[in-house]
Amino acid sequence: MTEPVSIEIQNVSKKYKTAQENSLTDVSLNIATSDIFGLLGPNGAGKTTLISILCGIIPPSAGTVHFYHQNQLITEQERKSHIGFVPQEYAFYQELTPRQNLDYFGAMYNLNKEELEARREDLLEILGLARFADKKVGSFSGGMKRRVNLAIGIIHKPDILFLDEPTVGVDVQSRNAIIRYLQEINNAGTTIIYTSHHMSEAEEFCKHIALIDHGRVIAKGDLTDLRKAHDAPNLQSLFIKLTGEEYRD
Amino acid sequence: MFKVFSSLRKEYLLLINDKVGLALMFLMPLLLVFIITIIQDSAYKMVNENQIPLLVVNHDAGKEGDKLVALLKQSGLFKIDSQDAVPEKSLKSELLSRGKLIGLYIPKTFSSGLESNAADVSNILMDDLGLERDSASAEKVSMPTLSFYNDPVLQENYSFSVMGIIQSYMSVIENSLMIDRMYTTMDLGGQSEALKKKMISNRVKINQIVAINNNSTAIPNSTQHNVPAWTIFAMFFMVVSLGSNIVKERINGSFLRLKTMPTTFMLVMFSKMAIYVIVAVVQVALTFSMGIWILPELGLPKLTIPTNLFAFASVILISSMAAVSYALMIGAYARTEQQANGFGAISIIIFGAIGGILVPTFVMPGFMQFASNFSPLHWCLEGFYILFLKGGSWQELKNVFAFLGIFILLCQLATYFKLRMERII
User: What is the model's pTM?
Assistant: First the structure.
């Protein structure tokens, strides 16, 4: 019996107007429901472009992306209610407090006042932000800002969560807290699509991965199977083996 | 509804957290109105109510020089400081050292020159009438020249006004001399007083009427001019707060994040516009309140609100919309906050200058008057002036609404296309 699929990506290519080459070429992937799927690759490989297409920020130049909820194909508009997006940037208001940020973005996800208040207080507690809930985010450390960024992306309990390098530049404690919570919500059924440059973190966190380089998928599948197939002791070795050792700027 | 409320609340919170923006939007207009109105009012009083300090050096050998000084004194317009011992060549330095702005030098041949000219005029008349006259040739003295000195800081139009006053008194003296001379030639000496009195007292009077509509109760003064003008300037200065606010949201990715959410970007724009239109209305309320209640306490004229309140509210609303739309456009096109702040602020000063906020458009050269049509501040100011100074009607406001409407539309379209190009919309 095949696993239910949340996202079906078929032959997706992307070429930006001003670019000479494709950022993505003929990418096809299926991401199963409740999976933790790692999109890995060197700088400029096309990971963020693929996530942006999946989130509906930019359209693909070619190919299709389908989203499913409980095995039913959903429309692009419906998709917005089912996904959560945690970008690499601190995409929130530094002049506001975590509580005010969550109130605003939660309302944009169509949560009503009561739902929003309950969920907001839960998240502030879980992510260790309750004590700072009424302080301006601008004064926070990098780790705290990452947690605010994450809280905004999951305030509406999305079925599918996109995380673009959610732990970049944070301390070990914050990283552990973030990863632990992400595993919890995955256990509760959330599909997670994740990019990172931390190979050990990705190895510990992801069930399946796709390795992308120069806009093409160069390997995909179960992480253990891939390591065995390429005779790599760990993900980092596999990564270097498949993408090479030269600098990527 | 909760979504709309949350969006408005977010904009409000961002606004109240922007302390510099708030100071620029609320303190600056109050200070500008306060300072500029006081300065302009004192300048107005200096010309119209206070005596003009005038240094007079009278070297005239005759009595006409004294007559001119006496007439200037009698007019009550001048506070005369007579320094006849000062030589003409040192009058400039004397003027500057005494802190006087204006000096008048009456030359030695002032009386003789005027008398010689009166004799010439009288002789021509006698010849034309075929009457006998004393043909003994008197010594000809050329027409005298008065020298008018002014401090370089004095505005040209002010100097011209003072010279005009002196010129009118000179006419009195010259006419009087001519009449005396003619009467003497006709052996009617001593009987000229009645004619002189008649000629001097029966001159054409000029009745000044301010061109306002009948329904206006406002009297043009420094308050009526400055309060609306600087309020408009301050309204447009919201570009610093709103423009940089948009740039920040574009750069930090929150606009793109919103694109992944089940909401419309129009809600974001609507909320921003609504909050900043309210800001503009509060600016108007604050500065106008100052004009009504605070300026009169300082001895300045009171601001009189137009009687057509609906038209007044409409002009405030469309001016606010124009300011907000311009700020949105700057926010959409600027790449950094510094660009939005710098370009935004400088462009408003330029728009203000060509739009008649700093200097009235009627004193500008023709091409600048034409250029003022391209300044949104000019049309906002025109709208306020039609209501505040001319007691104007809807009919007179139609150009204001048309031009500002076009400006708003262009700004909104430009903003839309830029945000669309960036895939935010």
Answer: 0.78
